[in-house]
Design a protein that fits this description.
It is a single chain. With about 150 residues, this protein is α/β, with parallel strands linked by helices. It has a single domain, classed as 2-Layer Sandwich (Barnase, Chain D), CATH 3.30.370. Helix 3 packs parallel to helix 4. The radius of gyration is 15 Å and the shape is globular. The model has no long low-confidence stretch (mean pLDDT about 85).
Length: about 150
């Protein structure tokens, strides 16, 4: 999982115009338990959310609708965008493999193998902190952060 991915990218003015499903703060996601609580609040997960990685994936799947048309003649929906402010703080109090788990789960929820991802993770932080986050992710076997901006 080391190829660059287009569904994780820095927040830009172009990306800022996308409809967002929620916003979370990396400073409130320094541990996996904090991440579960912050994403549950930011994305409106149901009260029965189990605060573990499996439940996190289940709730993301339920929260992120497909982008492909469901019927002939329907228009494709835009991807669901989630803005992560202070992104450099994501899981900083966890071992690096927690970033790998997060990236794998987000990739599955995004349907990252398709031409049209269902989820865009828009990271907001300084260039230096985003570069450090990208380094942490690749060191843990995850994808580097794309510098590609949406059209």
């Amino acid at each position: 999982m080391t190829s660059t991915t287009s569904w994780i990218r820095p927040l830009t003015e172009a990306a800022a115009g996308l409809p967002t499903r929620g916003e979370v703060r990396g400073s409130r996601c320094r541990t996996s338990q904090d991440l579960f609580a912050e994403w549950a609040a930011g994305l409106g997960f149901p009260d029965h959310f189990g605060h573990n990685w499996n439940a996190f994936l289940d709730c993301l799947r339920d929260t992120v609708p497909p982008v492909a048309p469901t019927s002939p003649g329907d228009r494709a929906a835009p991807p669901t965008a989630v803005v992560v402010r202070e992104a450099g703080d994501l899981l900083t109090d966890e071992p690096d493999n927690a970033l790998t788990v997060l990236a794998l789960i987000l990739a599955e929820a995004a349907d990252a193998g398709s031409d049209e991802p269902r989820l865009l993770l828009l990271l907001d932080d300084t260039p230096a902190r985003l570069a450090h986050l990208s380094h942490r992710m690749t060191r843990a076997g995850g994808p580097p952060i794309s510098s590609r901006t949406p059209a």
